[in-house]
Amino acid sequence: MSRIYKILHRTDWEAAANAGAYQGSALDRADGFIHFSTAAQAQETAARHFRGQAGLVVLEIEADDLGAALRWEPSRGGDLFPHLYGVLPASLVRGVAEAPLDPDGAPVIGVRP
């Protein structure tokens, strides 16, 4: 099993959970897929893209549950990142965790590679 992670604002997750699916952020929709990170990539993703933003959560998803809609594509530094070409059904989210900010304002992502 391979877990992947999505960082987003709690209010966005609450709306998606109520709707039954997450459609992605504005950036996701502009890029045509939902951006995810592996456990090894999540902390850097948080520091780069979410610094200074409070009220974040981290969704935990089993990559195999997403089937062929999930593609592993090169991104930052040539690393392969998981990209979902479609919506994320709320029922596939295995866990939701708070992402508090560290003293430098970076979200703390409590996942281990």
Task: Note the topology.
Blueprint: E1 3-9, H1 10-19, E2 21-22, H2 26-31, E3 34-35, H3 39-49, E4 56-62, E5 70-74, E6 80-84, E7 88-89, E8 93-99
Antiparallel strand pairs: 1-4, 2-7, 3-6, 4-8, 5-6
CATH architecture: Alpha-Beta Barrel
Write the CATH homologous superfamily: Protein of unknown function DUF952
Shape from CA axes?
globular
Percent in helix: 10-25%
Contiguous helical run count? 3
Strand order across the largest sheet: 1-4-8
| The CATH topology | ADP-ribosylation fold
Record field, number of beta strands: 8
Which stretches of 5+ consecutive residues score pLDDT under 50?
Answer: none
What is the CA-atom radius of gyration, in angstroms? 13 Å
Order of helices and strands: EHEHEHEEEEE
Summarize the biggest pleated sheet: 3 strands, antiparallel
Mean pLDDT: 93
Whole-number count of domains? 1
Strand composition percent = 25-35%
CATH domain class: Alpha Beta
Distance between the termini: 13 Å
The computed structural class is alpha+beta
The oligomeric state is single chain
